[in-house]
Amino acid sequence: MATFLYRLGRFAFRRRHFTALFWVALLALAGAGAAGAPAAGTTSFSIPGTEAQKAFDLLEERFPGASADGATARVVFKAPAGEKMTDAGNKATVRQTVEELSGGSQVARVTDPYQGGGVSKDGTIAYASVSYKVSGMELEDSSRDALEGAAEDARDAGLTVEIGGDALQTVPHTGAAEIIGIGVAAVVLVITFGSLLAAGLPLLTAIIGVGIGVSTITALASTLDLGSTTSILASMIGLAVGIDYALFVVSRYRAELAEGREREDAAGRAVGTAGSAVVFAGLTVVIALVGLSVVNIPMLTKMGIAAAGTVAIAVLIALTLIPALLGYAGRRVRPAGEKSKLLGGGRAAKKPQRPNMGTRWAAFVIRRPVAVLLLGVIGLGAAAVPAASLELGLPDDGSQPTSTTQRRAYDLLSEGFGPGFNGPLVVVVDAKGSDDPNAVFRQAGDDIKGLDDVVAVSPAQPNKAGDTATITVVPDSKPSSVTTENLVHDIRDTGADIKAGTGADVLVTGSTAMNIDVSQKLNDALVPYLILVVGLAFLLLIVVFRSILVPLKAALGFLLSVMAALGAVVAVFQWGWLSGLMNVEETGPVMSMMPIFMVGVVFGLAMDYEVFLVTRMREAHVHGERPSQAVVTGFRHGARVVTAAAVIMIAVFSGFIGSSESMVKMIGFGLAVAVFFDAFVVRMAIVPAVLALLGTKAWWLPKWLDRILPNVDVEGEGLRARDAVGDEDRELVRA
What we know:
- By secondary structure, the protein is an alpha+beta fold.
- It has 22 helices and 11 strands.
- Helix 12 packs parallel to helix 17, helix 16 packs antiparallel against helix 17 and helix 19 runs antiparallel to helix 20.
C-alpha cells in the first residue's frame, strides 16, 4: 500500500493543477446542488419492527387522510392574574385566534379549547391544537409566520401565549464556539509547524472537505429525508479528522525534507508513510460509522453513512490535495526544525540541548510503568462510575432552553393539565376480526383506566369502517420519566390479555411510545455493536502491528476511554454536575443514540492515535531497538504531532457544545471528553506503561498467523526496500 500511495502522492504533486481543479470543481458542483435544494428538516424516528411503528403504520392504513405524520402545534393561552380563560373577553380572543389559525392552506384542523376540553380545571390555562396536512419538513414559512402572527395578536390582547409542538422546529445553530474551536486549531497548527503557510494547509483542506460533504448532504436532504442534525454531525467529525489527517501528512513531509529529500520525493514519501496510516485510520472510522446500520434505525443509519462519507472525503483530500498544495507552496513550507521569517525563523533552528518533551515523558513512564498504569486505570475507572446510572431517552420540548416558546408552552401545559399531558399515549385497537368491535373498544378503555399513573382516558374514536379505534391516554408523569415507560409496558401487557380473550390487537404509539421503543432498541443493540467494533479493532490491529497483545491492549484502552466519557456525560447531562458551565438548562436521560454513536466515532479516533504513535515504535523495534528504547523513539517522533492532533480535535468538538440542539451539544461534549481521555490518558500514559512492562512479548505473533496475515505495510517498509535497491544500483554504477 505504501508504494501505491507513494506514486499517488508524487502524481498529485506533479499534476497539481489538475488535482486542485478537480477538488475545486467538486466543491462548486456540491455547492450549486446545495444552493438549489430545499432546507433540511428534522427526520422522524421510524423504528421498523417495533410496536409503536406497527401502530403508526396501522393508523396510516385505517385512517386515510388523517395526516398521522403531519406537523402539529399547541397554542397555549394563560389568562392575566386574577382572570380566567372562561371570561367573555378572553374567550372571544381565543376564538378569534382559532378562526385566524383555521385559514391556512396547509392547516388540516384546529380544535377549539371550549369545545374539546382544552381548559384547565382552575380555568387559568387553555390550549388549541393545530394539525397540518404536511410534515414539519414540508411546512412553508408562510404557515409558520401565520402561526406566530396569530399568537402575537392574542398577546396584544393581554394573554400570555406560547407555542409548542414540532411546527416551529428550526435548523439548530452551533453558536460562536465553533469558530473559537477552529481558531484554537489554527493556533495549535502554527505552534506545531512554526509556519503560517504550513499551518494553513490542514485548515484549508479540512474546510474544503467539509464543504463538499455538507453541501452534498444538503443537496440530498430532501430526497433522502436527511435531518438538519445530520449535516451538523458530519461537519463536526469531518472537520476534526480532516485537520488531523492533513496534519499528519504535512508533518511527515517536513520531516522528509529535513532528511534532505527533494520536494516531490518528500511529498510521495509523506503520502506513502503517513498516508498509509491515514487510510487505515479513516477506514476504521468509516467502518464504525457505516456499521451503525446494523441497529436498523433509519435515522441513525443515515447519520452514520453521511458522516462516513465526509470522513472518506477527508482521507482522499489528505492523500491528493495536500501534496498538490505542497507543490504550489514550494520552498515556503520549510523542513522540520525551521521557522518562517514571519515567526522569527529563516534559518535552521539550533539543535536542542536536551531531549524533547515526548522523549522525556516516555522515559519517565518507562521508569515508573506500574505507578503510571495504576493511576491511569484507576482515574478512568473513577470517571466511568456514573455510567452505571446511565438512563437513556429522547428529548422533547421539556429539554429545550427556557428562552424558547416551545419550552414555555411545555411548562404552561404541565402547570395547567399535569406533566403527562405533554406526552399523551395513543392506543390503537384493531378489532377487525372481532364480532363486536365496540365492546372491544369499551373493554380496552376500561382496562386502561384501571392502571396506575393514568390521569385520563378519552372515549374510543373509531374509523369510518368501525373496525379500528384510537384511545388517547394521559399519564400522570412527564414523558421522559421511568414511570411513563412502565405505563407503556403495562398497557401493552393489558393489550396482550385483551388479544388472548377477543383476538383484537391493542398497540401503543405516539411520540412518547416511539421514543421509548427507540431507546429500548438502541439499548439492546449497544452490547452487540460494542462487541462488533472492539472485535473489528482487534482484527485490524493484528494485521497492522502483527502482534496479539498490542491490539488487545488497544481494544481494552478504547473500552476504558469510552466508559469514562460516558460517565462524564451522565455526570453533566443526567446528574447536573457543571451544568451551568455547559449551559445545560434541563437535566434528564442521556440521548438514546449517544452511547452507540460515541462508540462508533471514538473507536475510529482512538485507532488514529494508536496507529500514528505505535507504528513508529514497531518500526524502531523491527530495526533492532530494545522494546523500551523503541517506546522512547516512538514518542520522540510522534508525541508532538499526536498531542497537536488531539488538542485540535478536542477544540473542534468542544465548539459544538454551544449548539442549540441538545443532541449536538451532548455529542460534542462526549466526543471532546472521549478524545481527551483516549489521547492523553490511554495512548500517552497507559500504552507506554503496558509496552514497557510487556517488553519483547508485546510484539509476539504465532508463526502460523504471521504467514497467513496480509502485509499492509503501514510503516513504509516497501519504500525502504526500494531505497536499498536504489543504493545498490548506484554503487554498481560507481564501481
